[in-house]
What does this fold into?
Amino acid sequence: MSLYDTISNAIPCRQCEDIAKGILFLASQNMQRAEITKIILSRQEERYSRIDFTEGFVSYGFTPGISPTFGSVNGRVKAVLFLSYTCAYCSVMYNTVKELALKYKNEISLTIKHMASTTNDPYARAALAAQARGKYADMADLLFTTNTATKDIYGFAQKIDIDMETFKKDMESSNIIAQLASDIDDSTRVYVTGTPALFINGKRFRGSAQMASNLITQQIGIKP
It folds into this structure.
């Protein structure tokens, strides 16, 4: 997925917007590509060397419903991630926290919520339809690794061995539409305006995927 795809999405990826603005500014200074890349990477590293996460933050409650969930909902760490499949950095955060939830499945859970403008979002509905058939992770991987212009949700369903008629019915089912509506309501309730938006034990986390990994492992007593 390209940076252009991400910043053109209706649901903004704030990190990508910031990067795009930085690239445009540096290009206007007649800098070469290698110089721009070096500066952007160094600034991102500096930005994410700080964490804005304190015990004083407001804590929110979430109901998983039929949302895709990895790990144990009874674990000590409950992570909730609001994402969009057209957000490049969502893939990084998703894969990082998912790996932890699978590795420490008795200690950590990751619940996926969708940040969408309406319940007509085809990618979110496709993901939930795949979830109904036990194929969420497979569908999410395809949605994340394919450019927006070439995302073929029906082709993806066939690729991961979901019956096409069943998939189409699930896409239109009241349960899936209701779950997506619930995700949208949750995103409004907890003031999510961009993706990825990660909550750890009900509290908003602000930082890089690696910092999220470090924090989560610390909370289950493992040194990063």
Remarks:
- Residues 48-55 have pLDDT under 50 and may be disordered.
